[in-house]
TrEMBL record:
It is a multi-pass membrane protein. This is EamA/RhaT family transporter. Keywords: Membrane, Transmembrane, Transmembrane helix. The keyword Protein biosynthesis does not apply. It is found in: Membrane. Its main location: membrane.
Length: 328
């Protein structure tokens, strides 16, 4: 394994942990701060940190949006992919566990092809993609333990709001791709974060939230600090660098590791638990994503099998029998 592979593997793990911790920190912060205000303050802090980072690491000329695509990409990120997506997540997070929230957000790679099929001429939804989407939706029903008796409460409850956030993120991602911006993803995010913060402050005021209602306890400050600096600015830098390096399909797999981090964090720090049905539903969602991404994941699987075979031959193991070539 090369140094570059080690580096991107470490970045993948770091992004998964940072994004997974978002759900735990949000759940903890919501006990002291209203949801929309919490996420707005999060992006205030993230905008300052990431804005400072790009100013220090980029030439001024590289920071200026110059095309309609740049502006459209910034707005799509600020309004849909970051602002509304996180606002809806934090609203819904108050009534679902950290693990369930992360699992529902793991549907982003499944929702994305639905929008891409209608908005991107080169990404039409295939029959395989449609089948994978249906399998993923079955998994969602299992995660939220949907039954005819609970259907109405589910459609108006926290799970539905979190799902709406996942839909917003998927739509925003496709709109960014459609806009074909020329700015780097990190610079676009630095522009998008203050737009997200302003949008969420406006929604917070419209919802009747007040800064006076917030209790700035040490726990609340730690939550905001983690969400703004680590799960905000740092996670976005790593995530978009990973996206540029390994592509959309493989980088989106962070959404399938994040629920593990969120579940463990919720269990260790918040005393939360998950049912067996929820865990099984997550497995079904992963299968759905595998069906959708099978054309792109197949070459990766072939390379993995090839490397495993090479390792076996190098260590004296037979290809089929699993016995050593040496005369032991």
């Amino acid at each position: 394994m090369t140094l570059r592979t080690h580096r991107w593997s470490a970045a993948f793990l770091a992004v998964s942990v940072l994004f997974g911790g978002t759900f735990v920190a949000a759940k903890a912060g919501l006990t002291d701060i209203p949801p929309l205000l919490l996420v707005a303050v999060r992006f205030d802090l993230a905008a300052l940190v990431l804005g400072g980072y790009v100013l220090l690491t980029h030439d001024v000329g590289d920071l200026i949006p110059r095309t309609r695509g740049d502006i459209a990409g910034i707005l799509a990120a600020g309004i849909f992919a970051i602002g509304l997506a996180n606002g809806l997540l934090f609203l819904g997070q108050g009534s679902v566990t950290s693990g369930v929230g992360a699992i529902l957000f793991a549907l982003v790679p499944i929702f994305t092809p639905l929008f891409a099929g209608g908005l991107l001429s080169d990404e039409r939804l295939s029959a395989t993609g449609a089948a994978g989407t249906l399998v993923g939706l079955v998994g969602v029903g299992m995660v939220i333990e949907l039954t005819p008796a609970t259907l109405r409460a589910t459609l108006t409850g926290g799970a539905a709001i979190v799902l709406a956030g996942a839909v917003s993120l998927a739509l925003g991602t496709v709109l960014i791709r459609r806009s074909a911006p020329r700015l780097s993803s990190t610079v676009r995010t630095a522009w998008a974060l203050p737009i997200s913060a302003a949008l969420l402050h406006a929604l917070s005021l419209a919802a009747g939230e007040s800064v006076a209602a917030a209790t700035w306890t040490p726990s609340a400050l730690l939550s905001v600090g983690y969400l703004g600096v680590f799960a905000g600015a740092l996670a976005y830098i790593l995530h978009f660098n990973l996206l540029d390096a390994v592509g959309a399909t493989r980088s989106s797999l962070v959404f399938y590791v994040s629920p593990v981090v969120a579940t463990l964090g919720g269990w260790l720090l918040l005393g939360e638990s998950l049912s067996a049905m929820t865990v099984a539903g997550f497995g079904v969602i992963v299968v759905g994503f595998g069906i959708i991404g099978s054309p792109e994941l197949a070459p990766l699987a072939r390379r993995s099998r090839h490397r495993l075979a090479e390792w076996g031959r190098a260590h004296g193991y037979g290809r089929a029998e699993g016995v050593r070539y040496s005369g032991e």
